Amino acid sequence: MTTVIRMYKAGDPSVLVTEEEEVGHPGAGQVKLRHEAIGVNFVDTMFRSGAFGAPLPFVTGVEAAGIVTELGPGVRQFEVGDRVAYFFAPGAYAAERVIDVAPLIRIPDDIATDIAAGFLTKGVTAWLAVRHLHMVKPGDTVLVQGATGGVGSLVTRWAKALGATVIAVGSAAKLGGIAHEVDHALASDEPNLGLRIRAVTPQGVDVVYEFVGKATFPASVKAVRDGGEIFTIGAASGSPEIDQAELSARSVTVAHASAAATVKGAMLQQASTELFDRWREGIFGEIELHRYRLVDVAQAHRDIASRSIGPNPILVP
């Protein structure tokens, strides 16, 4: 028997129900995993709230890391005992699971299992931003909306390491954690935010990575230069209202990006390799993990909602 967290209806954290169930054997192209750590992401709370309309009953959680305990027929790329992690494969809130091999990556020997579980999804999303959507280079001016969040903080540091001028906008209470690492740090609730950004970069920014959405998008539009780019990668405050005519007149490109839909197969291997290389270089600083027992996942969700924890919560079965 294994512990599984399942929801039978959408709602607040109280809908997450702890159950015990048997885990079957893996089929063709699958393995069985024993999870050692499970990442908790903002997207998990959106699945739980019903924002994505997931079929019920549903086991949420999209990333974890652990040990391969059984191979299904035809699996050659992994062996029993391998440490692996995965990125965006719903069903992670469980002590054990059966999973297709497609989203799995092998964890390098020098990367701790809990580190892999705690920042793979966030890190791959950051890679998508700075290494795929817009290849950040020296001389770029980059605006990160939501720079104090889990993904935003990684994007901020990675863009700076690539030689960009970085303007970080985030929670006033948490800006101190990154202010010394960027060129300009501004609170997201600052009046006339768009004008404040323009004051520090009158020519406008080359690219905006927008993780907040509706609340900060007007400032992003004011801040971006004509011919610049805005990538909406998250919408914590709701979907932004986009005046396409205005943006087209300024030749501003706006695109929504999803790491889950984009980063697969060989691209996932490339992204994870580069991510771990940058981790070894220390550009992300210390990855601080906040641990919860798997059965305490509802509290983790409440803490995410209240913003009372850091960006890397994990569940330990």
Question: If you had to describe this structure to a student in words, what would you say it looks like?
Answer:
The protein is 29% helix and 27% strand. The protein is of the alpha/beta class. The protein has two domains: 2-121 and 285-315, Medium-chain alcohol dehydrogenases, catalytic domain (Quinone Oxidoreductase, Chain A, domain 1), CATH 3.90.180; 134-256, Rossmann fold, CATH 3.40.50.720. Strands 3, 4, 5, 6, 7, 14 and 15 form a seven-stranded mixed sheet that branches. It has a six-stranded parallel sheet with strand order 10-9-8-11-12-13, sandwiched between helices. The protein has a two-stranded antiparallel sheet with strand order 1-2. It is globular.
Write the layout of secondary structure elements.
Layout: E1 2-7, E2 16-21, E3 30-39, H1 42-49, E4 63-71, E5 83-86, E6 96-100, E7 104-106, H2 113-133, E8 141-145, H3 150-161, E9 165-170, E10 184-187, H4 193-200, E11 205-210, H5 217-223, E12 224-232, H6 244-249, E13 253-256, H7 259-262, H8 265-281, E14 290-293, H9 297-306, E15 313-316
Parallel strand pairs: 8-9, 8-11, 9-10, 11-12, 12-13, 14-15
Antiparallel strand pairs: 1-2, 3-4, 3-6, 3-15, 4-5, 5-7
Helix pairs in contact: 2-3, 2-8, 4-5
In percent, how helical is the residue content?
A: 25-40%
Count of DSSP strands: 15
Using the coordinates above, name the CATH class of the largest domain.
Answer: Alpha Beta
Estimated structural class:
alpha/beta
| Cα radius of gyration in angstroms | 20 Å
